[in-house]
Amino acid sequence: MDKNKIKKILIIRLSALGDTIHTLPLANAIKKQFPTLQLDWIVEDKASKFIINNPLINNVYELPRKKWKKNKNKIQNIIEFFQIIKKIQKEKYDIVIDTQQLLKSGIILGLSGGKRKITLDGGREFSYLFANEIIKTGRKQFDISYHVVKRNLEIAKYLGCEDLKEEFILPDFSKEYSNEIIEIISKIDKNKKTIVIAPATTWENKHWTIDGWIEIINILKNEFNIIITATKAEENLTKKILSNIKDKENIVDLTGKTSLADIVYIDKNADIVITPDSGSCHIAWAVNKPYIISLFFATSAKRTAPFGDKYYSLSANISCSPCMKKRCQRSDKINECSKTISPHEIINIVKKVLQQK
């Protein structure tokens, strides 16, 4: 493909945080192949943190979904949406890529005015109807055996990109780290390894048992610095865990105290991150510093787990997993999958990691 003929590309990846991070290797591959082109992105505010000021991206269109949800004036929301679409149309993109593959992203693809409207096959909600080029992979969008990063890189390959490494380029967050978090991290015991435990996630069906978290923290807390991270909304979970922990001398609870930029800083200073399939898991992968032990119950490790020499994933050993459902569909033994991963499996991986470091 002639590099000189492609001047502008727009990526559509609206949400969620993890999926947005998983699209960064596609952006990186495109930018390496076409270093002088204008590469833009349209994203929702929830996932915009890793796109705005990203060195790969020239311009960002941010959909203020949170504001729109609160605004009772729906007509105003529609007007603002089409104002953004009008800006996109003015750019006259050579290529617009829909990696979201849902109706909402398909509509944006159709309205974008791009000359080539590209998506992958297997999309949902008839999103493919808005494309004029469909890349044939023979796989569904939510194929549980095919990693979403590799799926996104199918687009880069189709565009003639030669470097298809799974590489994450992040914005420079150094000016956004909070002084409080920097000070807290500076005071932890430097003679001990640091393990970050991020127990929360948005899906009920992705959670591990509270007893499991309690047991591994009790086993690890004397030998390691333990940092707990979670949002303010997830405080009930971390309170339940920590209320059953005696002697918290080596435990730092940062629940509700961190921004996304702070999580990047914490992960850069960690040795191991233990987490279910969550935004925290994918941020740790993108940081490319800590070892990661990720836990998968309702979702598929083959589809979204970090992969590589430093990354370990454990999957529920039960016939109905992965179900890919937000809530358990069983009438008996609800969330039984969460009980099939034992604390000792995680501890054994921690021991293995320490032998490698």
Largest sheet, order of strands side by side?
3-2-1-4-5-6
The portion of residues assigned to helices is 25-40%
- Provide the residue-averaged pLDDT: 95
Largest sheet entry: 6 strands, parallel
- Give the uncertain stretches in residue-range form: none
Give the name of the CATH superfamily of the largest domain. Answer: Glycogen Phosphorylase B
Q: What top-tier CATH class of the largest domain fits best? A: Alpha Beta
Could you tell me the strand content as a percent range?
15-25%
Rg: 21 Å
The count of domains is 2
Category from helices, strands and their pairing: alpha/beta
How do the SSEs run, as a string of H and E?
A: EHEEHHEHEEHHEHEHEHEHEHEH
Tally of extended strands? 12
Shape: globular
Distance between the amino and carboxyl termini: 43 Å
- Number of alpha- plus pi-helical segments: 12
CATH architecture of the largest domain: 3-Layer(aba) Sandwich
CATH topology of the largest domain, anyone? Rossmann fold
Write the layout of secondary structure elements.
Elements lengths: L7 E5 L4 H17 L4 E7 L14 E5 L1 H6 L3 H18 L3 E4 L4 H9 L4 E5 L12 E3 L12 H11 L20 H8 L7 E4 L12 H11 L4 E4 L6 H8 L8 E3 L6 H9 L3 E5 L2 H9 L3 E6 L4 H4 L6 E5 L27 H14 L1
Parallel strand pairs: 1-2, 1-4, 2-3, 4-5, 5-6, 7-8, 7-10, 8-9, 10-11, 11-12
Helix pairs in contact: 1-5, 1-10, 7-8, 7-12, 9-10
How does this model look, in words?
The chain has 357 residues and is α/β, with parallel strands linked by helices. It folds into two domains: 3-158, Rossmann fold, CATH 3.40.50; 175-356, Glycogen Phosphorylase B (Rossmann fold). Helices cover 35% and strands 16% of the residues. It has helices at 17-33, 65-70, 74-91, 103-111, 148-158, 179-186, 210-220, 235-242, 260-268, 279-287, 301-304, 343-356; strands at residues 8-12, 38-44, 59-63, 95-98, 116-120, 133-135, 194-197, 225-228, 251-253, 272-276, 291-296, 311-315. A six-stranded parallel beta sheet has the order 3-2-1-4-5-6, with helices on both faces. Helix 1 (17-33) packs parallel to helix 5, helix 1 (17-33) runs parallel beside helix 10 and helix 7 (210-220) packs parallel to helix 12 (343-356). The longest helix has 18 residues, at 74-91. The radius of gyration is 21 Å and the shape is globular. The N and C termini lie far apart (43 Å). 43% of the residues are buried.
